[in-house]
Design goal:
By secondary structure, this protein is α/β, with parallel strands linked by helices. The chain has nine helices and five strands; from the N terminus they run H-H-H-H-H-H-E-H-E-E-H-E-H-E.
Length: 178
């Protein structure tokens, strides 16, 4: 997604905290554009009557508030994938409560490939890291893509093993850059 197209999504993601609140607004209004164009009276119930976020929605996004995201999206390895995007993983869309936005590092096409999510301790033992690398190396050779949230520790060990085995890896976060 180009930065210009991402700004309305990022704006609502930040105002709602993403997740269920943004998904609920999308279900009700159909698109981010329709949310931004909705009448105040229709938005208020979704923000528990709080005028401040409703005022922010009605004022519209200010691209200057998303400088970190712009810089991040300028890197061709980084992608923002909305739940309405055909690149959004179809199986993820089917779970209860799928995240409305995915912040992706790596080839976005890998989102539809068979994957193995690797998560674990941020402070692993040497043996734990060795095991994560060994599992990831063997499983990527079997055709799986190593996927994680790009955390330090076990996640990083698993990611490092994939390219060494001649495979690709991808990191996905639904909560944003921070």
């Amino acid at each position: 997604m180009r930065f210009e197209d991402a700004v309305p999504w990022l704006h609502l993601h930040r105002l709602t905290g993403g997740g269920a609140s943004l998904r609920h607004l999308l279900e009700q209004f159909g698109s981010v554009e329709a949310i931004h164009a909705a009448p105040r009276a229709e938005l208020l119930p979704y923000f528990d009557g709080d005028q401040t976020p409703v005022d922010a929605v009605l004022a519209g996004p200010d691209a200057g508030q998303f400088e970190a995201e712009r810089v991040w999206l300028d890197d061709p390895s980084n992608h923002l994938v909305a739940i309405t995007d055909p690149a959004y993983p179809s199986l993820l869309r089917e779970i209860p409560g799928p995240p409305p936005l995915l912040f992706v590092r790596g080839a976005a096409a890998l989102l539809s490939a068979p994957q193995l999510a690797v998560v674990g301790s941020r402070n692993p033992s040497h043996g734990g890291c060795d095991n994560a690398r060994a599992f990831s190396e063997q499983l990527t050779r079997a055709g799986l893509v190593v996927t994680s949230g790009l955390a330090l520790g076990i996640d990083a060990c698993a990611h490092a093993a994939a390219p060494e085995a001649g495979s690709q890896t991808i990191a996905v976060a639904a909560t944003g850059l921070d």
